[in-house]
Write a structure and sequence with these properties.
With 258 residues, this protein is an alpha/beta fold. Helices cover 26% and strands 27% of the residues. Helix 4 links the parallel strand 6 and strand 7. The mean pLDDT is 96.
């Protein structure tokens, strides 16, 4: 079983580039399922029904999110569509779910969305939450989107779940890392899969605004950068009988036509 995981999609520019590139990329990877992080897919970040539909129309089977999941006050979106996830370690009673199980015919794939707590919102402990979740998931094929800031927290979770899940894929920092591996030959891991957004940007936003924020530490209204895009993703292979991953490949696409 081949799974394609695409990094944080940023705004209309990112959604448009994903729509142009994902169908071909899915065919090339022979992907049985596509997971896309959409927490920044709406204009001004967050996710809306409109941006979610763009991601699904592009070819996403499951949309994961992160710390911006409720930024646009679209809580009902998570209750209405079980294939749109918010981090599972939000407190009980929060709209939506952090787990989705895809029926792929001969097998199934569980997608779990978690958020880190280092330098992030003080949510429930992701290590404790994943322990509880794994007790009730029957399939051996499990992918975790770990939306976290600290590389140390991401790598720690990767080793913690080695042999227990098929993949731990980091999102949130928008910059693809070069540390992909299959831990113990069983669990595919990368600290960050990257983003889909403007190449000339700071994490998808206009560089000048990011510079102003870092230079003067005053409030700045960020806007999405335009121009040619970049797409960060990983393709991984999972043994559907054991749930073990034996291959993970980094993918970087750059728009040369826009």
């Amino acid at each position: 079983m081949n799974i394609l995981m695409v990094g944080d999609v940023v705004g209309e520019n990112g959604c448009s580039y994903l729509s142009r590139t994902l169908p071909k990329l899915r065919r090339e990877c022979e992907a049985d399922a596509v997971i896309v992080n959409g927490e920044n897919s709406a204009k001004g970040n967050g996710i809306t029904p409109q941006s979610a539909e763009m991601l699904f129309s592009a070819g996403a089977d499951v949309i994961t999110t992160g710390n911006h999941c409720f930024r646009r006050r679209c809580e009902s979106l998570f209750d209405e569509n079980p294939r749109i996830l918010r981090p599972a370690n939000y407190p009980d009673g929060t709209p939506g779910s952090g787990v989705c199980v895809l029926d792929l015919g001969k097998t199934s794939l569980a997608v779990i969305n978690l958020m880190g707590t280092a330098f992030m919102e003080p949510l429930d402990n992701p290590f404790a939450v994943i322990d509880t979740l794994l007790e009730s998931i029957e399939t051996r094929c499990i992918l975790v989107d770990f939306h976290a800031e600290a590389t140390a927290e991401k790598r720690a979770l990767g080793y913690y779940l080695a042999g227990r899940v098929s993949a731990v894929i980091g999102t949130h920092t928008h910059t693809q890392t070069a540390d992909e591996e299959c831990i113990d030959g069983k669990t595919a891991y990368i600290s960050d899969v990257g983003m889909v957004g403007a190449q000339r940007s700071v994490l998808g936003v206009c560089p000048e605004q990011a510079i102003q924020k870092q230079r003067f530490h005053t409030p700045v209204q960020f806007t999405e950068a335009d121009g040619p895009c970049i797409l960060g993703a990983v393709c991984l292979s999972i043994d559907s009988k054991t749930g073990n991953s034996n291959k993970i490949r980094r993918i970087i696409l750059k728009d040369v036509t826009n």
